[in-house]
């Protein structure tokens, strides 16, 4: 009797284990199935075909798709080995409804599924929201699942590199500003002889050799420089002497 009970229990456990699904679909893959159904209902058949062509582990969830319509994709030449890169370029690694995208101001950069490629926002309100060169024309196509969102766009996205990957070797050099380091000083010229033998110290008397022709200057420059002697010119002293002699003559 005990043997029969054990046999029945083992049979029951085998039936229960066989009735359980052996390959349960993960919730994220279920979200992808729901999203592709919504895409097909919105007539984005070619984009669904690209998703089906991609490796099964490429997209698991937590993503926002940007979907060109069938007409735009029909005009795009795409090798079969470029499907994954195309899908990554047309995806944002976070599920974002259009209202959430609307919080990004103009000139914001949103990453794509490829880390080196970005989407630049031009936010001019509903119906005029651009990511790089494309405009969102059909928002919130995918909403049934919890981890995948998708929006229809009016063309194929053109890539924008991240600022860190820009090649600055061809950029113009920055112009010098007042705050920049000073330019190297040029060597100072050798000092030349004083012009016209002028003594720059007015308190020092000039030797008689520097005077000729009754105290006229020997300078040959165009400027009129006076030879100073104790603060008076030699011409002033001569005139003062003449005035003294004239005064003596008149007094006599």
TrEMBL record:
Keyword Methyltransferase annotated: no
Gene3D superfamilies tied to this protein: FAS1 domain (2.30.180.10)
A Pfam family hit: Fasciclin
Family annotation (SMART domains): FAS1
UniProt key word Transmembrane helix: yes
Source taxon at top rank: Eukaryota
Record keywords: Membrane, Signal, Transmembrane, Transmembrane helix
Region of interest: Disordered: 163-222
Record's compositionally biased regions (Low complexity): 168-183
InterPro entries: FAS1_dom_sf, FAS1_domain, FAS1_domain_protein
Signal peptide: 1-24
Sequence ranges assigned to domain FAS1 in this UniProt record: 64-160
TM regions (residue ranges): 227-250
Comp. bias regions, Pro residues: 184-194
Family note: Belongs to the fasciclin-like AGP family.
Protein name as it appears in the record: FAS1 domain-containing protein
Lineage, broadest ranks: Eukaryota, Viridiplantae, Streptophyta, Embryophyta, Tracheophyta
């Amino acid at each position: 009797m005990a043997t029969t009970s054990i046999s029945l229990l083992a049979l029951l456990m085998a039936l229960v284990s066989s009735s359980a699904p052996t390959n349960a679909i993960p919730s994220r893959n279920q979200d992808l199935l729901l999203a592709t159904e919504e895409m097909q209902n919105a007539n984005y058949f070619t984009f669904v075909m690209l998703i089906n062509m991609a490796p099964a582990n490429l997209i698991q969830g937590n993503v926002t798709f940007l979907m060109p319509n069938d007409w735009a994709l029909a005009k795009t030449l795409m090798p079969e080995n470029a499907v994954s890169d195309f899908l990554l370029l047309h995806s944002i690694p976070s599920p974002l409804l259009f209202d959430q995208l609307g919080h990004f101001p103009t000139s914001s950069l949103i990453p794509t599924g490829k880390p080196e490629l970005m989407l630049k926002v031009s936010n001019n309100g509903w119906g005029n929201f651009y990511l790089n060169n494309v405009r969102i024309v059909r928002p919130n196509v995918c909403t049934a699942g919890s981890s995948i969102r998708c929006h229809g766009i009016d063309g194929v996205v053109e890539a924008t590199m991240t600022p860190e990957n820009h090649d600055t070797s061809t950029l113009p050099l920055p112009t010098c500003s007042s705050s920049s380091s000073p330019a190297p000083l040029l060597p100072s010229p050798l000092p030349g002889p004083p012009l016209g033998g002028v003594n720059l110290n007015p308190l020092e008397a000039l030797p008689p050799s520097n005077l000729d022709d009754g105290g006229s200057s020997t300078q040959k420059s165009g400027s009129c420089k006076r030879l100073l002697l104790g603060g008076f010119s030699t011409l002033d002293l001569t005139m003062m002497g003449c005035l003294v002699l004239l005064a003596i003559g008149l007094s006599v």
